[in-house]
# Entry
Amino acid sequence: MKNSEIWIAFYTILVREIRRFTRIWPQTLLPPAITMSLYFAIFGNLIGERIGEMGGFSYMQYIVPGLIMMSVITNSYSNVSSSFFSAKFQHSVQELLVSPTPNWVILLGYTLGGVSRGLCVGLIVTVLSLFFTHMALESLLLTIVVVCLTSVMFSLGGFVNAIYARSFDDVSIVPTFILTPLTYLGGVFYSIDLLPDFWQTVSMLNPVLYMVNAFRFGILGVSDINVYWALVIVCVFIVVLFGFGLRLLNQGKGIRS
Amino acid sequence: MTYAIEIRDLKKRYESGFEALKGVDLTVEKGDFFALLGPNGAGKSTTIGILCSLVNKTSGQVSIFGKDIDQDFAKAKRHLGVVPQEFNFNVFETVFNVVVTQAGFYGISRAVAEGRAEKYLKQLDLWSKKDVQSRMLSGGMKRRLMIARALIHEPDVLILDEPTAGVDIELRRSMWEFIKKLNEQGTTIILTTHYLEEAEQLCRNIAIISAGEIVENTSVKALLKTLNQETFILDVDTPIPTDWTVTNYGVVVNQDGTSLEVEVTKGQSINVIFQALDAISANVVSMRNKSNRLEELFVKLIKG
# Structure
């Protein structure tokens, strides 16, 4: 395919993905807005006032970056996993497979579809958080870079999940039993300084911790970890997941007999 | 010579160990109207799946308009349009979007795609449904939508896998008129069907596949010439004796004597039967084949 044709194919996939999650906005955009508003009201306002300061900020201010990142992670992941698995399930993925669209364009299109939803939800949650607290911004560039890279990484993870999934249960297993615990234990609600040494060391193995803290550093200027390490880790995951996802597509894993 | 489709020693063994194709050789000429027939599980869908990249082959070579699907897959795919057996579009998209989105996957600009979508949806009587979610369409409309989608990049070869399954007679006829016109305009048509009379009426060449092997690959005319015996059913206006016979002909008269089955082998003439009936003052009011001629051959070839 010529470059211009590749661009059209990529743009078509991306627009279709955006059209999908905006068409079903009560399932994709509304729930995180409601859930996060409850988090802000209950954990931030009601309980947070009793907790006091954390890292030099009010508890509400401290958890907002983590909750935004949590929304971005779960929505990026679930957008790609559910969309690609649905395409597999109703065989509409064959529309792409019979076309000359290169596999890397398919992967990129779905990934950026997930990023679009992740960032869209992230923006909604950010705006909502402003109704509950004042937000500083330490580094706009770092904040944007971290949120975008994290969204790419989890979108790719969602794609790999969808490739392997054989039922809708398989699509929900990873978010429920892996992603959610990693996110909750990834420093969204607390600083790992509060943990005993052993659990601090264990927490350092959780990749979500790096992303949440890097994002928090971009907004508040405080972090439990070295931000540059976080960027390196995310980039490595992206390269590995992209390579792995592309290899699965080339093999036709789960989509070709 | 460059063929529309050229398949050499194509083999497919599934992970379960089932050998679906055991070295298929097949060529389809440009502009042909070709039928690929075979019983369920014979290897038709596997062959088509490999042609359109939905099934990975185990070994062998496949070219579409001279483009090898392994070495030049993008160009090979451009020549091919596929109407699969099962509905495989996004049921939540509108009819118009299903077709235009498919064009995008071929790198066709939105403006060109919209023009073509209008053209094909109008030709297939779907234009009035363009803004309807595709899941709301009837079965026949869904099948026509898949034809419109397969044509959006204007392929040189159109593969139709059981396109008239579950489609009513009127719609089936109009669908074939449309496909015949496409073929007359130069598009190579490859068809799989269980309605053998369709293959006999529409196709010039035919291949019969059984247990993963091509057991016949010739023109429909040549194949029908090999038929040694045909069975005709004759309806007569006057009842004839149930034990009525004609020398050298197999004749079976039904119980009320108004209908008879006659076996006519190669070299014999049906006129002998007419003359014999005339002699007992019985006039033939209608005559038909007991079964489709191609069907008789098909059964014979499949049984080996």
Q: What stands out?
A: The interface with chain B takes residues 1-2, 4-6, 8-9, 11-13, 16, 19-20, 23, 87, 90-92, 94-102, 252, 256-257 of chain A (CB under 8 Å). DSSP finds eleven helices and two strands in chain A. The CA atoms of residues 138 and 220 of chain A lie 6 Å apart. The radius of gyration of chain A is 19 Å.
